[in-house]
Design a protein that fits this description.
2 domains, 11 helices, Glyco_hydro_20_cat, single chain, Beta_hexosaminidase_sua/sub, 5-stranded parallel sheet, beta-N-acetylhexosaminidase activity, GH, alpha/beta, beta-N-acetylhexosaminidase
């Protein structure tokens, strides 16, 4: 982890879409949960907050997908960058609470959503719903995302372009 800290200023632990059912069905983990008087949800929060502490101790800025903001925003470190992906409305709420935000709304900026035309990608505004200029400054940018379920090396270029360029 410390070697990585010399290369990057941001740290994300990819805690999106975490399914915790297996935690309560795995004897060793269930035992740990019981010993610590935690539910699976408590353990998820514990993991995220500990990862944030480690990231900050290494000089990183923690970046968390919006699930953490939606589940326990009041416990997140104020240095957290909230990475929006599920839909509109998260960036305005995040910056309203003083967090920085990255816009990656899956409805428009997920490139594996092949039904979204480039015109919709182009017209999408990461600052939508944020009227206050000081809060607008907390939106540090946007990111198009491409996941591998719908593309491989044979079609990745034509899947990404021109919609990625439209977001830029």
């Amino acid at each position: 982890i410390s070697e990585r800290s010399s290369l990057f200023n941001f740290s994300t632990w990819e805690e999106m879409e975490v399914h915790t059912d297996c935690w309560t069905n795995t004897p060793k983990i269930k035992e740990w949960l019981d010993e610590h008087n935690m539910t699976a949800r408590d353990a998820y929060q514990y993991f995220v907050l500990r990862a944030q502490e480690m990231a900050i101790a290494l000089g990183w800025t923690p970046v968390n997908w919006e699930e953490t903001f939606n589940a326990f925003s009041e416990k997140l470190n104020p240095k957290t960058v909230v990475h929006n992906w599920l839909g509109s409305g998260v960036c305005p709420r995040a910056v309203g609470k003083g967090f920085k935000c990255i816009f990656s709304n899956q409805g428009v900026w997920y490139l594996d959503h092949l039904d979204v035309p480039w015109e919709k990608v182009y017209s999408s505004d990461p600052l939508e719903g944020i009227a206050d200029s000081s809060q607008q400054q907390l939106v540090i940018g946007g990111e198009v995302c491409m996941w591998g379920e719908t593309a491989d090396a044979s079609d990745v270029q034509q899947t990404i372009w021109p919609r990625a360029a439209a977001a830029a």
